[in-house]
Amino acid sequence: MSTTQDQTPGMAGMEARLRAALDARAELVRPEDLAPIAPVVPLRPRWQSPWVLLATAAVVLLVLGAVFQTVAGGPRSDEIAPQPDQRTVEQTPELPADVGRDWRPDPEAAPIRADLDGDGTRERVELLTEPTADDDGRIRVQTTLSSTG
């Protein structure tokens, strides 16, 4: 509100009219007009949220499934899988370390150079074949790796 010092006659009249208009509007307001626009719904606790209930149900099902798998006692895959034969040293065939040392390089397969050990140096690779009548025997891959690998 304005004070009496800075009030002019026009201002005082306008203020009086504004006050009268606001008073008239205030008298028109009834108690039912002051009711809330939307009805107040009590908030439910967070644990009653559908997402929390869904997550809880999923965890319960997971735990029940794990318990059922354990208690059911069905055979596990590692129990029913076939076990490898138990070999003894006498049963394991062993080849001598020098198999194929006296074989000759295959005339149809020229020596190639390839980096076998990843050190950047290309090693020479030769294919030695077992001498047979039909040339359908074993093949030996022979190479000498570089000393930097």
Model description:
The protein has 149 residues and is an alpha+beta fold. The protein has a domain at 104-143. 32% of the residues lie in helices and 11% in strands. The protein contains three helices and four strands. Strands 1, 2, 3 and 4 form a four-stranded antiparallel sheet that branches. A hairpin with an 8-residue loop joins β2 (112-114) and β3 (123-129). It is elongated, with a radius of gyration of 48 Å. The relative contact order is 0.07.
Task: Summarize the SSE layout with pairings.
Elements: H1 9-28, H2 50-72, H3 77-80, E1 104-105, E2 112-114, E3 123-129, E4 139-143
Antiparallel strand pairs: 1-3, 2-3, 3-4
Biased composition (Basic and acidic residues): 114-127
Transmembrane segments: 51-72
Region (Disordered): 74-149
Strand content: 5-15%
Helix content: 25-40%
Oligomer: single chain
Query: What is the global morphology?
Result: elongated
> What class would the helix/strand composition place it in?
alpha+beta
N- to C-terminal distance: 94 Å
Annotation, overall tally of beta strands: 4
Poorly predicted parts = none
The mean pLDDT is 80
Largest sheet: 4 strands, antiparallel
Discrete helix count: 3
Radius of gyration: 48 Å
Order of helices and strands: HHHEEEE
